[in-house]
Every structure is written in structure tokens, then in C-alpha cells.
Amino acid sequence: MRRRRKMKDQTCFCGLKTTIKKSSIRENPDRLFHTCARYPKGSHCNFFRWVEEDGYVVGAETDAEVGGDYDEWRLNVSWRLDSLEGEVRAMKMLLMFMLVAVVVATVLCVSMLFTLISK
């Protein structure tokens, strides 16, 4: 069973609540650090802070990744919103291209019609 640690909330540069992970490097084995909730899943803000620097003393039970269901939900919603915004931008560009193509085709058809009528 996972237990949440009592600590003040840390937020990364993205504005999301940070997660706590365990270091796996040789220089700092098993040392806890705060990182962006998006790390390593995709684009993240490179937020990093050792847990000891925020006044928290490592307790008996540790959790490699601390965060609630709400934080995970918020991260998923943020990622989905970003991808939807990208799709909307692509659709707008496609719509503008189609509009320009229709206008150009209409102008060409009208000019050819006037050329045929005037002969």
C-alpha cells in the first residue's frame, strides 16, 4: 500500500505539482529529488530540486513517485489539451488552405467564363 508523505506542495515551472523520484546514479544512490510531473513522459520543464533542500527529512517509508490520482489526472488532461490544441491548429490551417483553393478556383472559373462570353 502506498502512503503519501506530508509535505508542502512543490510546483514545477509548468505549474504542476512535482513528483518525488529516487536517484539511481552512483554519486547519489537512492537520494530523493523533486522533478516535473511530465518527466520522462514527454516535454517537461527540467525542474529539479533535492528533497533535503526544502526542509524535508527523509522518513521511514519512502515512495519513489509521490503524487495523487488528482495530479496524474491533471497531467493527463494537460497533455490531452495540448494535443487537442495542436489538432485544432492543424485543422484551422487546412480550412484556410481549402478556402484559398476554393477562392482561386472560383476566380479562374469566372475569368474563363468571361473570356468565353466575350468571344
From TrEMBL:
GO molecular function: zinc ion binding
Residue span, GRF-type domain: 12-54
Signal peptide: none
Keyword set, alphabetical order: Membrane, Metal-binding, Transmembrane, Transmembrane helix, Zinc, Zinc-finger
Chain ranges passing through the membrane: 94-117
InterPro entries in UniProt: Znf_GRF (IPR010666)
Keyword Oxidoreductase: no
Pfam families: Zn_ribbon_GRF (PF06839)
Protein name stated in the entry: GRF-type domain-containing protein
Originating organism: Arachis hypogaea
